[in-house]
Design a protein that fits this description.
The protein is α+β, with helices and mostly antiparallel strands. Helices cover 36% and strands 20% of the residues. It has a four-stranded antiparallel beta sheet, with helices on one face.
């Protein structure tokens, strides 16, 4: 799929302020409110924009422990394990990957005891052959989205 320059400009503007009004976006980009609305509706329909959510600092809410879990899974159970991880509230990202492990999951926990309990519960599953968990010491960059390139006209 290709997107025009206005689509990229709209996405970038929404990255800066996801709560911007159609009117303010139109003024910023020098297009009509109708044009902004049509482009945003198209981007939503195509799945490019999936929603408008706040960026939460989980550390400020008491979830100061971030864990990266790498899992080797029995092949037939991969989908089941991925679905189980996706259903756990404190697991914020789940990836099926290539390499030595099959799944990488990132979780946010209140403390290492909570992390430990969730990992032990997960490892009780006989379909998980091996795991490796790392605790993040410092999150230097996290959950950042990047602006799209825009042609200068």
């Amino acid at each position: 799929m290709t997107y025009d320059n206005l689509d990229s400009q709209l996405i970038n503007a929404l990255l800066g302020d996801g709560r911007a009004s159609l009117r303010s976006l139109g003024e910023e980009l020098d297009v009509s409110v109708t044009t902004v609305s049509n482009h945003i509706n198209d981007l939503e329909a195509k799945g490019v924009i999936e929603g408008y959510t706040p960026i939460i600092d989980y550390g400020e809410l008491g979830y100061g422990v971030t864990a990266i879990m790498q899992l080797k899974v029995e092949g037939a159970a991969l989908t089941e394990i991925v679905d189980r991880l996706k259903d756990q509230d404190q697991i914020v990202s789940v990836y099926e990957v290539t390499g030595d492990y099959d799944i990488i999951a990132l979780g946010k926990f209140g403390d290492t005891d909570g992390m430990n309990a969730q990992i032990k519960e997960l490892l009780a599953d006989v379909d998980i052959r091996e795991s490796n968990t790392s605790v993040v010491l410092n999150a230097e960059k996290e959950n950042r989205q990047f602006e799209l390139d825009v042609d200068e006209e």
